[in-house]
Amino acid sequence: MYDVHQIRADFPILGRTVYGKPLVYLDNGATTQKPRCVVESITGEYYNTNANVHRGVHFLSQQATELHEASRETVRKFINARSADEIVFTRGTTESINLLAATFSQSQMEAGDEVIVSVMEHHSNIVPWQLQAMQRSIRLRVIPMDDQGNLLTDEYEKLFSEKTRLVSVAHVSNVLGTVNPVREIIATAHAHGVPVMVDGAQSIPHMPVDVQALDADFYVFSGHKVYGPTGVGVLYGKEEWLDRLPPYQGGGEMIQHVSFEKTTFNELPFKFEAGTPDYIGTTGLAKALDYVSAIGMERIAAYEQELTRYALQRLREIPGMRIFGEAAERGGVISFLVGDIHPFDMGTLLDRLGIAVRTGHHCAQPLMTRLGIEGTVRASFGLYNTREEVDALVAGIERVRKMF
Ligand code: PLP
Predict the structure, then answer these.
(1) Is 105 in the pocket of ligand 1 (CB under 6 A)?
(2) How many CB atoms lie within 10 A of CB 115?
(3) Ligand 1 atom, smallest distance to 363 CA
(4) Domains in the chain and their CATH numbers?
């Protein structure tokens, strides 16, 4: 049994009201709320175990280091990486992709080389490549999609050339909810001898992910979207790839020996972790992963799938409803417009009813251009959302619709 009410009791913020109305939090694609165990892990570590990691001989530093490195092992297990050395802690998805874009293009790409992305990427999987493109004249090739929000795999195949160096795609679209066939996308790329980075920002919180089963070369995600703290994230990379990439930032932690003549770099994963890491955040992230693991990612996925089916069915009953993203394989992100009501108006009025949704381009302007719109309203579910909240959303939309 999936006891959603018991789960909700772990998230104190879900009990609050806004404008005197019970909070209906449907902005989980942007960030998720935190269970008590994560918040307590953060305060507990500051109160009891705070010391800088890795460099200390003293008791507290060793204890903090143990917690930090145990968190790396928790992440390894969660995504089934082969080795904890393949887990690089970053500030989040965006920093993970910037790290990869900078180090990969610096060491593996020449002018004229190409990276394949998809039309539904978040800006953070577009702009880092463009920044590199400006310096090294590399090119982005874009996988198109059909009107339902499925990537066109035949067109994808055609994008490969002897210039292709990397494929970089989202596992789940943060606008359409499409679950992309990343296993097939990776197999196709590998058949061309090209590695693949998967942006897991919207998949990690919602489904089991096994990087070895996917055969992903790189996989990135943010802690705050999976019920963990802000400011911490992960870059997974196969050891053979991480070994080939140069350091990203310089500073403490990432060196073996420094002299003014020559500096040598630390081993994996520390080569990519310059400066004091967010060791409090990594412990919080590990707590969040333990929390969702204890519920079970399969069960979370099944529950959210059922909730999404219900929401889609209810939303489609609303006159004038247009849903963007009708892929057969989809997650709990629903983008929509109703009649000619501006998404900002819809979002603002829903907010007055206590319903938190997101409006706008969702950091995916090229996708908005493809859809021929400026923005949408987006409701995105987490493991604690309920059918009653879906009903509140539907009733709220109906109320707004009648006002216009
Ligand atoms: N990629 C996708 C698909 C996202 O949905 C997001 C955030 O919404 C990001 C990347 C960026 O994540 P962050 O802001 O945590 O770095």
Answers:
(1) no
(2) 28
(3) 8
(4) 4-30+296-403 (3.90.1150.10), 40-293 (3.40.640.10)
Cα distance between residue 168 and residue 147, in whole Å: 21
Burial (CB count <10 Å: 0-12, 13-18, 19+), residue 322: middle
The ligand 1 atom at the shortest distance from the C-alpha of residue 30 is 8
- What DSSP letter does each residue of 174-227 carry, written as one string? TTT-BB--HHHHHHHHHHTT--EEEE-TTTTTTS---HHHHT-SEEEEEGGGGT
Give me the percent of the chain exceeding a pLDDT of 90: 98
Say yes or no: CB of residue 94 within 6 Å of ligand 1: yes
CA of 92 to the centre of ligand 1 (A): 8
What's residue 234's pLDDT?
98
CA of 282 to the centre of ligand 1 (A): 18
Q: What is the pLDDT of residues 167-190, one digit of tens each?
A: 999 999 999 999 999 999 999 999
- Active-site residues, by number, are 363
